[in-house]
Design brief:
Elements (H helix, E strand, L loop, with lengths): L1 H73 L8 E2 L12 E2 L1 H4 L6 E8 L8 E4 L7 H17 L4 H13 L1 E6 H7 L4 H9 L1 H6 L1 E6 L3 E7 L2 E11 L23 E8 L1 H16 L4 E4 L12 E6 L1 H4 L3 E2 L10 E6 L1 H72 L8 H30 L5 E3 L1 H12 L8 E5 L6 E3 L1 H18 L7 E8 L2 E7 L34 H11 L3 E6 L5 E7 L4
Parallel strand pairs: 7-12, 15-17
Antiparallel strand pairs: 1-2, 3-4, 3-9, 5-6, 6-8, 7-8, 8-9, 10-13, 11-13, 14-16, 17-18, 18-20, 19-20
Helix pairs in contact: 1-8, 1-10, 10-11, 11-14, 12-13, 13-14
The structure holds adenosine-5'-diphosphate.
The site of adenosine-5'-diphosphate has 19 residues, from helix 13 and helix 14.
Length: 601
């Protein structure tokens, strides 16, 4: 039995390891590596996320600016004026209207409009227009005029080139009633009066005017950014004097007049308000738009940024290349959330993995303990079989030998009592053995209930039965007076004492110090102790010797006789009384067996 257990159980343990623990560890490890790799990959994507965030912002800005330009393109060139003669107006009473530039508010992002008469030389008039929502309009008008005057002076030399390209590429021909044109280019009341006087004549005629697309220009003037959209308006076929009467409103119509008109874009709106208001829509949670920090940005792992140069990217023309870099913005992509998600994922994995490992470890431990117990049991059974065989064989053969000799009359009469005594003694040994085996199974089944009684009195009553036949004085009783009553069974105390004393006699060298039977009070318990000067019990064996059939050492080398049942019975009886047995080293050598009883109240 032991042999089979010894091989199958460890094999089960091995299988458990190979089939459960190993795959768990391997797959767990692989999965863990996968998580880490994913994270690393996501990290690498951070810079490209910043790039794409920047692209989205730029696209949205282009769209917003495009819409603004588109709306402004819809405005007829002649509304850059105080009054407008609607092309549909008919009849004598020409109804002049105030220009839409002056009657409505400035649209978001537009600071004001201007119109320059380029045909009138460098000092010709600059007209500016402000919407109704401009607060201090007189001052703002002056400021606007200054800005436009400055703009006009810039790069005079380029004028011809620009004009030429405009003419070739971007011009749209617009046909307008002469009235609208005449009112549109009127700069004073006399001219307006003139138009009103000749309204009939003017209304009949239409004229073709070239209007260019808006161009965007950006520059920095004394630290102040300026963003300007402008277009050109040309009259390529001046009317001849023959066709027209005289009057102040007709003069401009007879020249190649050339207007430059447009509007100022609010740089603060363009470079700050607009992108930041678009950022909510265009960017996701892990991206952020920011103005680049003054000091170089501190770059840490998992964070990246991409720069936006709105001026260049929105198609503004600049006079100096560095102006194109004005108003830089950064899109910052961070991996904070990613890191958070990753650590949550890792934690969850570790928790589950830990639990799984714990379960597996518990399994291994339980299995291992089971295996150990089985092996121990098997070992004890083996010992028992050997011991019982030996214990039975010796007395039986002695009895048989002696009985046969007596039967055959080979023993001299004076020796016969000795032979009978030996037969009786061996028979007693046999019956003790049988009784112990029986008692063990009996004790497991029906238990006598313990009663509250005085331990000392119970021991006193047993004294005669305990004393040895050979040596009257080998027992020394040291019973402490005044001990409380404890829970006990009388037969239990008898079994415990007789077994302990018998063992002490067996294992301690004969003729030495007397054995001590002692009672005393310690730590809330009443102790019953049997002390000897024998070899003592090695620490590793102190638990095991109370197991059934357990004997120290091996059956082959042992010199003492026994079954390994004595101390087991002691423990069973002690447990019936609710007491605990243990063994310690006795001071000065030997062992001290202790039974700790619970006081009865
Ligand atoms: P047995 O005495 O029949 O072998 P026990 O159950 O009485 O069985 O004892 C178990 C083991 O404990 C013994 O084999 C012995 O090695 C050890 N033992 C018991 N009593 C003593 C003692 N007083 N001194 C030293 N060893 C002891």
């Amino acid at each position: 039995v032991a042999l089979r257990l010894a091989t199958t159980s460890p094999r089960a343990l091995g299988l458990y390891g190979v089939l459960l623990v190993l795959p768990t560890l391997i797959f767990g490890g692989l999965y863990w590596r996968e998580i880490q790799k994913d994270f690393a990959r996501e990290r690498l994507e951070v810079p490209s996320r910043a790039e794409s965030g920047a692209e989205r912002i730029v696209a949205s800005m282009r769209q917003a600016l495009g819409q603004l330009i588109e709306r402004e393109s819809q405005r007829p060139f002649y509304s850059y004026s105080q009054y407008v003669a609607p092309p549909t107006a008919r009849g004598d009473a020409m109804a002049l209207q105030r220009s839409s530039l002056l009657t409505g508010p400035n649209p978001t992002g537009i600071q004001g409009w201007f119109s320059i008469d380029r045909s009138g030389g460098p000092d010709s008039q600059v007209r500016v227009f402000l919407g109704t929502n401009v607060k201090d309009s007189a001052r703002s008008e002056d400021e606007l005029r200054d800005v436009v005057a400055d703009f006009r002076k810039r790069k005079e030399t380029e004028e011809f080139l620009q004009r030429a390209t405009d003419l070739l590429l971007n011009m749209n021909t617009v046909e307008v009633p002469l009235t609208a044109l005449a009112v549109g280019i009127s700069t004073d009341d006399q001219q307006i009066d003139c138009v009103e006087k000749h309204a009939d004549l003017l209304q009949e005629q239409k004229v073709k005017v070239q209007v260019s697309e808006f161009r965007l220009q950006f520059y920095v003037h004394e630290g102040t950014p300026r963003a300007i959209a402008s277009r050109r308006v040309l009259l390529n076929d001046p009317l001849s004097a023959k066709e027209l009467p005289e009057g102040p409103c007709f003069e401009p119509l007879m020249t190649f007049f050339h207007l430059q008109q447009g509007f100022l874009i609010d740089p603060d709106w363009l470079l700050r308000k607009l992108p930041f208001s678009l950022a909510n829509q265009a960017l996701d949670e892990e991206e952020e738009l920011r103005i680049p920090p003054q000091a170089g940005p501190i770059d840490y792992v998992g964070q990246a940024f991409a720069s936006i140069y709105p001026i260049n990217e929105l198609g503004f023309e600049t006079y100096y290349p560095e102006d194109g870099l004005y108003g830089q913005l950064d899109v910052l992509a961070s991996s904070e959330r990613m890191t958070e998600r990753h650590s949550r994922q890792s934690q969850r994995f570790l928790a589950v993995g830990g639990m799984l490992l714990l379960t597996l470890a518990t399994g291994v431990t339980l299995l291992y303990r089971g295996v150990r117990r089985e092996l121990d049991q098997a070992h004890r059974m083996q010992n028992f079989v050997a011991a019982v065989t030996h214990e039975l064989r010796t007395p039986v053969s002695t009895i048989r030998l002696h009985a046969e000799m007596l039967q055959d009359g080979w023993v001299q009469p004076e020796k016969q009592p000795e032979y009978y005594r030996r037969i009786v003694r061996e028979t007693q040994r046999l019956s003790t053995l049988v009784e112990r085996v029986l008692e063990k199974s009996r004790l497991k089944e029906n238990v006598t209930r313990p009663v509250a009684a005085d331990l000392n009195e119970t021991i006193q009553a047993l004294r005669p039965a305990l004393s040895s036949s050979e040596d009257e004085d080998d027992l020394d009783f040291q019973l402490e007076a005044g001990l409380p009553a404890v829970w006990l069974t009388a037969e239990g105390i008898e079994m415990i004492l007789s077994n302990l004393v018998e063992n002490a006699r067996k294992y301690a060298p004969p003729g030495g110090e007397p054995l001590v039977v002692r009672t005393r009070w310690k730590d809330g318990r009443v102790l019953l102790e049997v002390l000897d000067r024998g070899p003592g019990v090695p620490a590793a064996e102190r638990e095991k010797i109370f197991d059934a059939f357990y004997r120290v050492g091996s059956e082959q080398t042992r010199t003492t006789t026994g079954t390994g049942l004595g101390l087991h019975l002691v423990r069973l009886h002690a447990e019936t009384c609710g007491a605990r047995v243990s063994v310690e080293d006795r001071e000065g050598g030997g062992s001290a067996f202790q039974v700790a009883f619970r006081p009865a109240d």
